[in-house]
Automatic annotation (TrEMBL):
Residues 141-181 form the Zinc finger CGNR domain. This is RNA-binding Zn ribbon-like protein. Gene3D superfamilies: Jann2411-like domain. It comes from the Bacteria. InterPro entries: ABATE (IPR010852), ABATE_dom_sf (IPR023286), Znf_CGNR (IPR021005). Transmembrane segments: none annotated.
Length: 195
């Protein structure tokens, strides 16, 4: 499934995977759910398959996404939670009718109602955001060190010192930038050494 949607950054936490559907927020932002169908695709790979999505529901989803981003950023920086973000997250949480069901194999699945699949899916995402912002899960909210990203991510590393939202993108880019900077420094050193 992941290879079908290489442009989605799917992490281990639903709420921050969702906020990662808008990347490079502090640079040239990339919208990864530009159409209702793309949201349907993202929900499918995130265990929240819905049959359809309207443009109004896409707007609702993006509004929730930005509210989660705002609340998670505030939590990561120990700032007060923005009241509007809290209201939106709570509205989405209470307005869904998703049910957790247990499979015979012992896995959790979300059962969404056919009539309001997207709203139900958003309620699951909102509840996930509430659990991490409220500090109920083992981990710590942090902001990506990349200046063009600054995405909020959930650090579950033992030392809680993870710096990047995503190792394959932000982490890798930073590593490359550092390598090039070092190379230049060495070249300069070599040149000045010649004189
Ligand atoms: Zn990042």
């Amino acid at each position: 499934m992941r290879t079908r949607f290489p442009d989605f950054r799917l992490g281990n936490v639903l709420a921050t995977s969702f906020t990662a559907t808008l990347t490079e927020r502090c640079g040239n932002a990339v919208e990864r759910i530009p159409t209702p169908q793309r949201l349907v695709d993202w929900l499918a790979v995130s265990g929240l398959a819905v049959e359809s999505c309207t443009s109004v529901q896409l707007e609702l989803a993006r509004e929730l996404r930005e509210a989660i981003h705002a609340a998670a950023t505030a939590a990561a920086t120990q700032a007060p939670l923005p009241a509007s973000a809290v209201r939106i997250i709570n509205d989405r949480s209470v307005q869904g009718r998703a049910a957790a069901v247990l499979t015979p194999e012992g896995d959790r699945r979300w059962r969404l109602t056919p009539a309001s699949g997207v709203e139900d899916a958003l309620s699951v995402i909102a509840a996930d955001a509430i659990s991490i912002v409220a500090g109920e899960r083992d981990g710590k909210l942090a902001l990506c060190a990349s200046p063009t990203c600054r995405a909020a991510f959930f650090d579950t590393s033992q030392s809680r010192t993870r710096r990047w939202c995503d190792m394959n993108t932000c982490g890798n880019r930073q590593k490359k930038a550092r390598f090039i900077a070092n190379q230049r420094k060495n070249e300069t050193a070599a040149r000045t050494g010649d004189v």
